[in-house]
Every structure is written in C-alpha cells, then in structure tokens.
Amino acid sequence: MQTRYFYIKTIGCQMNVHDSDRIAGMMRTLGYEPILDIEKADLIFFNTCSVRGKAEQKTYSFLGSLAELKERNPGLIIGALGCVAQQEGEKLQKKMPHLDLVLGTHGYHRIPELLEQIQMKRCRISDTLWCESIDSLENLCSQEKVDQAGSGSRFVTIMRGCDNFCSYCVVPHVRGPEQSRGSGKIIEEIERAVKAGVREVTLLGQNVNSYGRKEGIESFPTLLEQVNRIKGLHRIRFTTSHPKDLSEELIRAFSRMDKLCRHIHLPVQSGSDRILKRMNRKYTREHYISKIDSLRQVCPEIAVTTDIIVGFPGETEEDFKQTLTLLEQVQFDALFAFEYSDRPNTRASGYRNKISEIEKRKRLQALMDIQQQYTLKKNRSLVGKQETILVDGISKKDKRKISDELNEKFQWTGRTSTNKVVNFIAENSLFFKDRLFPGALVCVTIEKAHANSLYGKAII
Ligand code: 5AD
Ligand code: SF4
To answer: For the residues 277-301, what does the mean pLDDT come to?
Structure first.
C-alpha cells in the first residue's frame, strides 16, 4: 500500500505542542508518516490558539492558504484542531469550505473514527463536544509513538481546563472546566518515560497549583513528592501556576525536593491592584510580592519569570507605572509581555475605556526595554560560575552544518535548573564523545551572558 503522509502545524502554548506530539504518534499508529513538505501531505492538521487576536488571525491566514492545495488535490484531508476550532466550531467550516474537520480541544481521542467517517462517507465534520473523562482524552497513543521520544525531556499533562475566569482570558471558554488526572496514571506515564531515557519532565496544566482540589485527590505538592521519588528521573518542572493558589507547602517544596528545578513561572499580569481586581485575579500586588519573598527565602537561587498584559481596558499611566515599579521591586529573570487583546465571551471584552493600539505598543516597548536590563544583569551574575546543564541537543546554529564532519567545536545547547538557555562547546572531543546527547547532564563554565542566553564551555 502506498504510504500516506501527514503534516501538523502547531501554535500556542506547551499544552498544544504536547497534544500535537501525541496526535502525531496517533497518526503513525494509523499508518501515516510525517512529512516536512506540506505540498506532499495527504493530511494536514493545524492545532490552533485563540489566546490573543493575533494568534487567531494566524488560523485564518494559514488555513485560508490551504484552499489552493485542496483544489489541486481533492483527496487531501484538512483539519483545524485546538482552541479556535473549539471556539468557532461549524462557523469555521462555513467560512472555509475546504476544511474536512473542525475538532475542539476535547476530541483528539476520536480522531481515528472521525477520519474513517470522513473518508468513507466523504463528509465534513465539526466536533466540539466536551469530554467527561480526562483519562480517555489523555490516552492518545502509546508512549513509544510520542514524537518527543529520543529527547531527554518530556511534557506530562496532569490537568486540563481552568475554573478561574480571569476577565481577559478565553481559556476557560475553549478548554472547559478544570479536570485533574489520577496520580497513578501520571506516575506510571513518567516511570515509562524514564525507562525510555527521559531525564526531565514538565508537568503541564493551565493552573497546576490547584491540581486535585476539585476531585478531592492528593494536592499538587503531594503529587510532586511522588514524582520526586521516581528513580532515574533527574529534573521536575511544572507550568503554569496561579499566584493565588501557590501554597506555603508548595513553596517549601523548592527546598525539600532535590529534583525540583529552581525556577517558577508565576504570571502576575499587572502591578496595579486596581487592574488586578478588574482582571479578577484574586490577589494584590503585596500578596504577590510576599509569595516571591517566601520563595526566595526557602530557595535564594530560584529564578522567577512572569507574564504581563499591558493596556488592559482602563489601564491609566499610573497603573502602568505600578507595573514598571513592580519589575524593579521583584527583578524577574525574564518576562513574557503581551498587548491586551479582546477575546470573545470574556468579561473584559465588554469593558469600556479601551487603550489605543499605539499606546499599547508604546507601553509594551517601555516594559521590554526595562526588563532587558534586569535579565542581562541576572545573566551576567552567572559569568564565571559552573552550572549543570541538561542537554537539549546541538544548537540550532550548528544544525545547519550537521552533515559536515563532526567537529570538536560543535555548539551544543541545554538548560540550567533555573531554565536559562546555555549554548556551549566541548573542546575535549575524546572525553565528550559518548557523554553528549539529548538528556545528558554536563557541567559547564559560563563565559558570556547575552540578553536571552548564556555561553560557556563544558568541563571534565
Ligand atoms: N490579551 C493579552 N494577553 C493575554 N493573555 C491571556 N489572555 C490575554 C488577552 N486577552 C496572556 C496572559 C497569560 C498568557 C498565557 O497570555 O499574560 O498569562
Ligand atoms: Fe486564563 Fe486566568 Fe485560567 Fe490562566 S488562570 S488560563 S489566565 S483564566
């Protein structure tokens, strides 16, 4: 039988990336092979994101551009998956008649039967049903088929959905209510990954701190403790956390658990109490700062990163200034900043006093300029220090010349426990011959600091 090829494009959060990896594994089980040249694909999936307007626009431009391919090859199957698919459902197919499948965030385990129906009945399907059981949704494909196999790091979903309804956020509307997986299944998945060579796991969820609360099962710190006991696992990360749910017990975990990486991503969104209230974040600036102080008390070297939205409706110059002073006060290691964007069905989309696009851009630039200095300062403080790096692979720059003869000056890339990217060389090629591979742990002396990465030399 002739091989059939699939192509998956993914944008958005790590949850989307992880879902796509497993959907790719599922496609292999169905007899498809991945292909890089989209023109040669028999099936194209686009896993979409709707967290901001710009991401949603990408859905329309990319899917729109596929109409021509479909015209040339009517047998081609095109599917929109993920958050925009969930949000728009049939409307997406009405706008784009060349879409065979629109599949929301809770339907990935139904892909095999849906594809069969599309092929047998030559029909188009839109499926945005919520799935009652997170376990059937998580059971997408066997571990061996997951695309990340062979790398030292793996995502593991521990919960899905969100019940917080921050006033700007579309996530609760497109990902549904919070659901946590049972810890037995999670531990089993990690143990199997470790047996396959994985050294680091990132526990994923929209709000991992409230893991298990609704189901009345163990708390997130207790789950972490169980993961921390898994032999052969070296590093544990988790994302994302909500400041209001960051318990003292979880803070203490950073000093108690040897495998827990010294990094937390704790989105603050704004430094102004007035705006935090309008965002429905349920904490104050002072409350947030006190959590950071406690984290640094138990773990002085912890890296803290955050998300900030600029230009939320009604954000005054004074509110924005409060955000800038928060940067100075907290000294984040890095931040992700976004211009506020109206999202369908959210409360903030109905708020008055919207900020102009020009003003939002200006505030974003001001914020980034200030943060860059702090990030560089933090990075510079590491120059001369030795850091343990978990190797990701050969750095992108050098991948281009991978076909060249193996060169001892090859540049590798990896991450510190604090999640900083380190590009490094290993000069003693004989010593490092079998010691450098994705998932290896090596000691590196940091020699240079850049805005977004560090540079160093592996040491014996
Ligand atoms: N506009 C701008 N940024 C947003 N985010 C979420 N919703 C919006 C929105 N409507 C940002 C938040 C969140 C990150 C993932 O995306 O900062 O933490
Ligand atoms: Fe969105 Fe708030 Fe839930 Fe995060 S906690 S996904 S920002 S609603």
So the answer is: 98
